[in-house]
What does this fold into?
Amino acid sequence: MMMFPRGCVSALMLSVLLSGCGGGGGGSNQGSGLAGLFGLGSGSQGSNGTGQSGVGTGGTSGTGGGTDGGTSPVPATTALVTRLGKPARMLFGLGLGEIDQMKSQNIHPDIIDTYLVGTGEKSWTTWNSPDGAFITYTAQANQAYGAISMFTLYQMQGDLSGINDATFMNKYWGQTRLMYQLIADLRQPVLINLEPDFWGFLASQAPGRDATRVPAIVSNQPECAGLPDNAAGLGQCLVQMGRQIAPKALVGFPPSFWSGTAAEIGAQMRAVGADKADFIVAQTSDRDAGCWEAESPPDECTGRSGTFYWDASNKTSPNFHDSQKQISDYRAVLGNGLPILWWQTPMGVPSDTPGGTDQHYRDNHVDYMLRNAQEYGDIHTFAIVFSRGGSHQTSLATDGGQFARLSGQYLARGGATLK
It folds into this structure.
């Protein structure tokens, strides 16, 4: 089933930040301020498979490789988790907007994800003083809670209109550089999710899905001199700038399958440098299935039709094996054996009754993915990050203790083995 662009949810200050978004259906490049951004959601489809075996994560970070004795190689997933300083099992994460509930329910995620939204006025750089201190305060709070920080860079907000405009791009690159500088100052590993939605819009608008045919301002940045002034160079610059400024940062690209097949998107993402990243960001859906099914849904769940509740028996589509195969096929085309992180996975509770009510819409991703975590470990997943993608979606506060219960059971079983 064709996938569609998704809408960013919100980017609030540390105490009230709601992790959301998943990408979005475009929007201004001038930032979202503290008001939420809402739009469409997406899902992924395909049938079960495993793709390539992990052999390394590419780039200059080198998270894969062999053992000191030159015997069997260390899986890329294990090497990456080791760099994060976490146990050798598949990790799980949550969005920053849930941190009060994490504490009250005694949930200790391995990863906490936070959005960095907008370019220019009211962008993430202005949320604290001095400019960009939001990163420092957030990372310090996450570290104190025992979690690795993940930052989702959403400066483009899915919009291609400014990438060949010098004024906009100088602001964009300046903020990106500031992000990397502040992350370097942390002196600890940090995960970075690079520009959700942007790559999907690029694929849908570039002639022949060829990123080299879309002009962009890149080579005027000192870290990226010599890279091509096009959208392919833009992606490469995001990686290269990070390698030079923040070598402890681990970066990943989120492909959008609503703009092509796994093979087509894999080829495009290789052109923008996704194969030189440290991991792949796989997306499920940033909305509970029941929100799309509701007779009178909120605005953040309008504009789509079809089947949204995935078949947990994996007999009819859409289902979980479909999704696993799609990202495995993409990983095989991308090459380089990159580990996978599933991101912004909805938090609804299973039900046989379609729909639901505000903040209590049905969904079965948490239930399936935590009960069947080894399926994800077997396709080279190193982490799954769960978070609501809108203010009307199910959260830790409204899931009836589902996540606390299932994540506790997952840990009690010892977690999924890394492959």
